[in-house]
Write a structure and sequence with these properties.
By secondary structure, this protein is of the alpha/beta class. The protein has helices spanning 41-47, 117-121, 124-137, 154-165, 180-185, 199-205, 222-227, 252-255, 274-285, 302-311; strands spanning 2-5, 16-19, 29-38, 63-70, 81-85, 100-104, 108-110, 145-149, 169-174, 190-193, 210-215, 229-237, 261-264, 293-298, 317-321. Strands 3, 4, 5, 6, 7, 14 and 15 form a seven-stranded mixed β-sheet that branches. Strands 10-9-8-11-12-13 form a six-stranded parallel β-sheet, with helices on both faces. The chain has a two-stranded antiparallel sheet with strand order 1-2. Helix 3 (124-137) packs across helix 4. The mean pLDDT is 95.
């Protein structure tokens, strides 16, 4: 099989396309034929050497969709459609940047769909992140106002659609006014050009503040985002587009406004039920949700795909077809 191997941390040019034996599943594992996978910012950080504990060489990739080739237990049948994500995939063991991969059964999500593989490949982690952030962490309700900071990211674009469909008023940010139409086409009620200070523009629209905030930029903007929330509201930090993991000299009493709650969502800790994934796939098939796919690459174009992800110019989810 072909695999995109990262021998050491560094730039996108470090990837090497290698011929490797197809791996053999052991007890509790399943061999998958990888049909598509999406790129994720966490993989960019791993590539740069910013993910603690990852040993190299490593085949990256924290998610994929594909078909079962072999399950020693017989629980999954050959040809069955499945998604796989997280659970140490692409970090603790080799992941999806390959034609075949072996994964623990615990991270599999069976599904049924007639969607083409590129669309399916955009779904697993993006869906998990949006569902977990909006429903499990923020517990959104119809009639609420939601600020999405980092709105033009693939997660931000999907979150705006899901929130709009749930009856929320969505404020979404971009650093470029030229991307305003992209945000409104994906469900944003109001578009805010982000210069690092959103309190004024948000309060002009919502004098008391917004009910909920989905923070996708990260630690660098989190304090300003929390200041935009009304008393009793909730902010969820999910993304790290700024590639900043921590807050220097964090002083909670000064950082978090009184009665505002701060939480996070991490699909490595809590995931959506398999039934929710199937429901989401069904909604895509029915045209109720549009998947924002930026570009589609082949496996031998993995370096170019990573460069596009790093440039923040994809305009949607980047998908690779091995």
């Amino acid at each position: 099989m072909k695999a995109a191997v990262l021998p050491r941390p560094g730039g996108a040019d470090q990837f090497q396309l290698e011929e490797r034996p197809v791996p053999t599943p052991q007890s509790g594992q399943v061999l998958l034929r990888v049909r598509a996978f999406g790129l994720n910012r966490s993989e960019l950080m791993t590539r740069k050497g910013l993910s603690p504990g990852v040993q190299f060489p490593r085949v990256l990739g924290i998610e994929c969709v594909g078909e079962v080739v072999q399950d020693p237990s017989g629980q999954y049948q050959p040809g069955q459609q499945v998604a796989a994500l997280m659970g140490g995939m692409g970090r603790d063991y080799d992941g999806s940047y390959a034609e075949y991969t072996v994964v623990p059964k615990s991270i599999l999500y069976p599904f049924r769909s007639q969607l083409p593989w590129p669309q399916l490949g955009a779904i697993p982690e993006m869906f998990q992140t949006v569902y977990g952030s909006l429903h499990l962490a923020l517990k959104i309700q119809a009639g609420e106002t939601l600020l999405i900071r980092g709105g033009t990211s693939s997660v931000g674009l999907l979150a705006a659609q899901v929130a709009r469909n749930a009856g929320l008023t969505v404020l979404a940010t971009t650093r470029s006014a030229a991307k305003a139409d992209l945000l409104t086409a994906n469900g944003a009620t109001h578009v805010l050009v982000d210069n690092g200070q959103l309190l004024g523009p948000v309060r002009a629209l919502c004098p008391e503040g917004v009910d909920k905030v989905l923070e996708l930029v990260g630690a660098t903007t989190l304090q300003d985002s929390l200041a935009c929330i009304k008393p009793g509201g909730v902010g969820c930090m999910t993304g790290m587009l700024s590639e900043s993991w921590s807050i220097p000299d964090f002083a909670p009493m000064e950082f978090i406004p009184a009665t505002v709650s701060l939480t996070i969502y991490d699909s490595g800790q809590i995931t959506a039920p398999a039934a929710a994934l199937q429901t989401f796939i069904d909604s895509v098939e029915a045209g109720q949700v549009l998947l924002g796919i930026g570009r589609i690459f082949s496996l031998d174009q993995i370096a170019e795909a990573h460069q596009l992800m790093e440039s923040n110019a994809a305009g949607g989810k980047i998908v690779v077809l091995p």
